[in-house]
Amino acid sequence: MDVNVKPEEKKPESLLHRLKTMAKKLKQNLMTIYLAYRDPRVSLFAKIFAVCVVAYAFSPVDLIPDFIPVLGYLDDVIIVPLGVYITLRLIPPEVLEEYRAAAEERRKLGKPINWFTGALIIGLWLCLAVAASMYLYKLFY
């Protein structure tokens, strides 16, 4: 037994654990922003900015595609957290506190399943695929 180590000393958190904690906090802040932007106490500019940040964060389309080696993930690591930070500064603190509690409640309930929206998006993609196929067919035949 090592006599130099005190039992109450904790090991420093691993980098992976800190990154997971930061990602969880970012996700929670995004849900808070999503809930808060509809509140009438939030200014129009903050609402527009919040919608853009949340849409960009959840969008599969990035400013810089992820397949580009370093730069692909750099926009996700810098742009989204910076947008969240700015949006949180634009929304009044009392509104944030109210919706942080609501976001925490939603997190405890689990992920919502919206089959209608999912079916709508899949239908839209199918329509686009059919239209593109028809265009290509007419173009080459």
Automatic annotation (TrEMBL):
Keyword GTP-binding: no
InterPro entries xrefs: DUF1232
One Pfam assignment: DUF1232
Membrane topology note: Multi-pass membrane protein
Chief localization: membrane
Domain spans labelled DUF1232: 46-82
Superkingdom field: Bacteria
Transmembrane segments: 44-64, 113-137
Protein name, as recorded: DUF1232 domain-containing protein
Source organism per UniProt: Paenibacillus allorhizosphaerae
